[in-house]
């Protein structure tokens, strides 16, 4: 075949005309800043799981309890209930059997004073003790119901403390006795102030703020340990006020000589004081020792 008869092939354009960028090194890493943001890989279920892990609960893993723990639980709760009711009953017995009962009259101011120890023991010890123990006793209930019971018992303690304070204040004014001069009155005044502050803050934050549950969840969660700590402090101060008041009443009414001679009324007063000490030990052991106020984090199924 003649070479002149062959048609010439078209020349291809150089590669550089299509891609003028220099080739990248084989092992060069692309900067992370040049990459687009990764897609959202957190699913709704994972978000719910994280939210549940951050939540707090008053319940515990009941299925992990053994027989010994159940016996301890039942024994402590039964003993606390008997002591809380018994200390108020013993105080009422003291007033009716040795102090001629109660009254609010100008001619017998001593009967008016008898309302003071009875109502203070009922408010600071019995009702407040039950209110503190509710987070241990009612662990199978929903938290909103536990909060309502907690507020109800404090609502029962509030008028007892107020009326008991007014009774002794009016008694001192009628008898010409100075007010707030003793250690007992100072401790009682601080305990009453903390009790009122605790009740107001607790009612506002844990009940009224539930109307806006999502918006105030963080604030209420941060307030829980503060409220719990000051609640225990108020209860301890109430115990101290009752003990110092019983000692003061025994010395002023019976006299040091009669009190030191093992009089029956003095023994009853000492029995009331020791019952209050036993209540404090059991309540503090139940709340702190066995985990009443320890808010445990639970991981639940998001579904």
Q: Using only CA atoms, what is the Rg?
A: 36 Å
- The gross shape turns out to be globular
Low-confidence stretches: 15-19, 28-37, 40-63, 290-303
Mean pLDDT: 77
Count of β-strands: 2
Order of helices and strands: HEHHHHHHHE
β content, as a range? under 5%
Counting helices, strands and paired strands, the structural category is: mainly alpha
Distance between the termini: 84 Å
Task: Give a structural overview.
By secondary structure, this protein is mainly α. Helix content is 65%, strand content 1%. It contains 8 helices and 2 strands. It has helices at residues 44-54, 67-98, 109-113, 115-137, 143-175, 183-206, 217-260, 264-289; strands spanning 56-57, 296-297. It has a two-stranded antiparallel sheet with strand order 1-2. Helix 4 packs antiparallel against helix 5 and helix 7 (217-260) runs antiparallel to helix 8. The radius of gyration is 36 Å and the shape is globular. The protein starts with 43 loop residues before the first helix and ends in a 6-residue tail after the last strand. The model is unreliable at 15-19, 28-37, 40-63 and 290-303 (pLDDT under 50).
């Amino acid at each position: 075949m003649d070479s002149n008869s062959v048609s010439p092939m078209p020349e291809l354009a150089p590669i550089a005309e299509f891609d003028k960028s220099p080739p990248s090194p084989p092992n060069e890493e692309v900067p992370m800043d040049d990459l687009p943001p990764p897609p959202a890989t957190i699913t709704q279920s994972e978000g719910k799981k994280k939210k549940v892990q951050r939540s707090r609960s008053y319940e515990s893993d009941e299925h992990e309890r053994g027989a010994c723990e159940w016996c301890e639980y039942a024994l402590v709760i039964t003993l606390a209930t008997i002591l809380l009711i018994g200390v108020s009953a013993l105080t009422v017995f003291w007033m009716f059997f040795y102090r001629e009962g109660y009254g609010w009259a100008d001619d017998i101011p001593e009967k008016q004073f008898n309302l003071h120890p009875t109502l203070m023991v009922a408010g600071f010890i019995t009702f407040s003790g039950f209110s503190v123990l509710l987070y241990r006793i009612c662990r199978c209930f929903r938290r909103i119901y536990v909060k309502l019971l907690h507020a109800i018992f404090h609502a029962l303690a509030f008028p007892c403390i107020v009326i008991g304070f007014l009774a002794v204040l009016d008694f001192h004014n009628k008898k010409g006795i100075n007010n707030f001069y003793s250690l007992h009155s100072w401790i009682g005044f601080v305990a009453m102030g903390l009790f009122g502050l605790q009740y107001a803050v607790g009612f506002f934050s844990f009940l009224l703020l539930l109307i806006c549950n999502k918006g105030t969840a963080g604030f209420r969660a941060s307030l829980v340990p503060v409220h719990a700590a000051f609640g225990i402090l108020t209860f301890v101060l109430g115990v101290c006020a009752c003990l110092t008041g019983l000692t003061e009443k025994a010395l002023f009414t019976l006299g040091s000589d009669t009190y030191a001679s093992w009089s029956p009324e003095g023994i009853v007063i000492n029995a009331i004081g020791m019952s209050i000490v036993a209540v404090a030990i059991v309540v503090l052991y139940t709340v702190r020792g066995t985990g009443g106020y320890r808010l445990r984090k639970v991981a639940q199924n998001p579904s």
